[in-house]
Amino acid sequence: MMLPKEILQKYWGHSSFRNLQEEIIKAVISKNDVVALLPTGAGKSLCYQIPALSKEGLCLVVSPLISLMKDQIDQLEKKGIKALTIKSNASVDEIVTLFDNLKFGNYKFLYISPERLNSEFIFNKIKQIPINLIAVDEAHCISEWGHDFRPSYRCIHKIREILPNTNIIALTATATKKVTNDVVENLNLKEVCIFKKSFFRENLAYQVIQNENKIGKLERIFTKNPYPTIIYVGSRKKTEDISNLINSKGYTSTFYHAGMTQDSKSRAFNSWMNEENLIMVATNAFGMGIDKSNVKIVVHLDLPASIENYVQEAGRAGRNGEKSFSVILQNDNDIQSFKKNKLESYPTIKEIKIVHQKLYQYCQIAKGELKKSPLNFNFVKFCETYNFPFKKTSNIFRILANNSIIEISPKYNKKSTIIFKISSKSLAKQQFNSKISKQLIDFIIRGHGGVFHKEVKINEFKIAKSLNTNSLTIKNELNSLDKLNVLEYKEANSNEELTFLIPREDDKTINRISSSIQKFIKQQIQKSEDLIYFIKNNTICRNIQLARYFGEQKGSKCGICDVCISKKKYNSSSLEKDILELISYKEEISQEEIIFTLDSDEKAILIHLRYLLSKDIISLTTTNKYFIS
Ligand code: ADP
Ligand code: MG
């Protein structure tokens, strides 16, 4: 069998491992149970893929989202490695065939959803194939403390009983202690090796800057640092608006969000990668798999969604080890609107029930019925039909998916299509009030044969050019013709595939999971509060604050964040403030811990502690820990 390095070279073409990958791979190959806690983009997939390739047999990968599975399988197949997944709607016959293929077809990976992994039938099938490793991807889904709890993840451990001699690797980017403990406990991991990459990056300066004139500040940043930059904003529309604004001031930028077609996404991505445009303005959809090493600055023009998101997004700067910056530009308004937006986007149980019921109705599913095959689904149209707000409804969909009620995955239509829904005769009789409608219909009929009886591909951009207008107008026009039932218009990349996993039971379904939903929402609110606390806390080093949040033992002052810089002229009154802040944060804390955390002159700290004790501002517990009196 090949060595890990040889596999890396042969299939991935990379010459060296990144931080911790090699150690993790070694531990997995030696049949240890392993937990790998590495930030997003650090290269976790290799940590199970390479061990699996170095042995006989197959690796079973549990993954929460079909879109993630599809993505991984595509990537593997491009390298000539065979991988499969079991579709959620696969019939018994299909599953039998699939396992036959697995047995005889030289496959190396079987990707499976946790829901699928929860049946005797599948367990029996799995017993018959030589599984060499179990990988649990996005393992934080096991924990209610993780940001994406999925009850079905808590049944994965059953596979342990089926395959007692196969080791498990659990992978996640969420690294709080509570989550890690939950993962170890729930998967029943034995003598587990835990690998954790500290999120601390000594070359990255975290800066939270209060500023009323954000664009002015941006200009100063760009002028001083003409290097690759990412600007994160809170909405799709804003990506384009801010990008235009920046360009009008003479800088080069482009924009990216999840609602764009695959084509425009690649175009934007490439123009930023090859530095034709130095600045990328994006929503947090821009992230996965970005591997540009010389990003100098990541700016958050709107507050990130959570501390987890922040650290991931900020971490895209300075991968080459050079000094780089993560800047949050904020003002009091931001915090107010962040709170308002967040609160408005969390649904009540009643709202979840309504959307859930309408969803079944919209897809024409009767009570008690289970629709087996995936449906073509357009989220935007669904929301518009019932006047549901996008953000909240999308959160509801996430809750339904996390609780194994539905499964939803993007379905990429590379090209838009249309088909007429009325005959050419009735079309000729139809009255249209706008000139452009007539021109558009004429153009379509002339240029696209067969459009009355089959779907034909169209290119809005080209049509717009021929008709001397822009593609947005064409899209709007086609959408209104669609509404009039003249034609059916499927816009590129606007559709998703929706699968129902359980029969329609209306409120009963939601009642069953309402307590877990409530917990989830409470947790999301807590996360928003943690973020606001971080933004507002300008007395403790940003790095130390983040270290505490992620439960890292060592957190030393970075010396380069906004807090550290403003304290460069350290004076003793601020030291006192820091001590008090720390004690009240920890509730109880020993002298050693205070000295260790504050990383300041030890003598000075002791003098302050003595003074605060004598004034009764702080007191000591019987175990010699300080607390606020
Ligand atoms: P994660 O699951 O940790 O978010 P992925 O496994 O998706 O990250 O990997 C992110 C990217 O990093 C992929 O494009 C992958 O090919 C690349 N990558 C992983 N390991 C290495 C390496 N040793 N050298 C160079 N690129 C790597
Ligand atoms: Mg991953």
Q: β content, as a range?
A: 15-25%
- Number of DSSP E strands: 22
Range of helix content: 40-55%
Molecular shape: globular
Which strand order spans the largest sheet, edge to edge or round the barrel? 3-4-2-5-6-1-7
As a whole number of angstroms, the C-alpha radius of gyration is: 27 Å
Number of helices: 26
Q: What is the average per-residue confidence, as pLDDT, rounded to a whole number?
A: 89
Query: How many domain modules?
Result: 5
Q: What are the segments in which pLDDT stays under 50 over at least 5 consecutive residues?
A: none
Q: Bound small molecules, which ones? A: adenosine-5'-diphosphate, magnesium ion
Class by helix and strand content?
alpha/beta
CATH domain class of the largest domain = Alpha Beta
Distance between the termini: 64 Å
**Biggest sheet descriptor:** 7 strands, parallel
Known CATH architecture of the largest domain: 3-Layer(aba) Sandwich
Which superfamily, in CATH terms, is the homologous superfamily of the largest domain?
P-loop containing nucleotide triphosphate hydrolases
Offer a few descriptive terms.
26 helices; 6-stranded parallel β-sheet; binds magnesium ion; globular; alpha/beta; Rossmann fold; binds adenosine-5'-diphosphate; Arc Repressor Mutant, subunit A; single chain; 629 residues; 5 domains
Layout of strands and helices, then pairs:
Elements: H1 4-12, H2 21-29, E1 34-37, H3 45-53, E2 58-62, H4 66-78, E3 83-85, H5 92-104, E4 109-112, H6 120-127, E5 131-136, H7 158-162, E6 168-172, H8 177-186, E7 193-196, E8 204-210, H9 214-224, E9 229-232, H10 236-248, E10 253-256, H11 262-273, E11 279-282, E12 297-300, H12 307-314, E13 324-330, H13 332-345, H14 349-362, E14 375-377, H15 379-386, H16 390-402, E15 406-410, E16 416-420, H17 424-429, H18 435-447, E17 456-458, H19 460-466, H20 471-483, E18 487-490, E19 496-500, H21 507-536, H22 542-549, H23 562-566, H24 572-586, E20 589-590, H25 591-598, H26 602-614, E21 618-620, E22 625-628
Parallel strand pairs: 1-6, 1-7, 2-4, 2-5, 3-4, 5-6, 8-13, 9-11, 9-12, 10-11, 12-13
Antiparallel strand pairs: 14-19, 15-19, 16-17, 16-18, 20-22, 21-22
Helix pairs in contact: 2-3, 14-16, 14-21, 19-20, 24-26
Bound molecules: adenosine-5'-diphosphate (ADP) and magnesium ion.
Adenosine-5'-diphosphate binds at residues 12, 14, 17-18, 21, 38, 40-46, 289, 291.
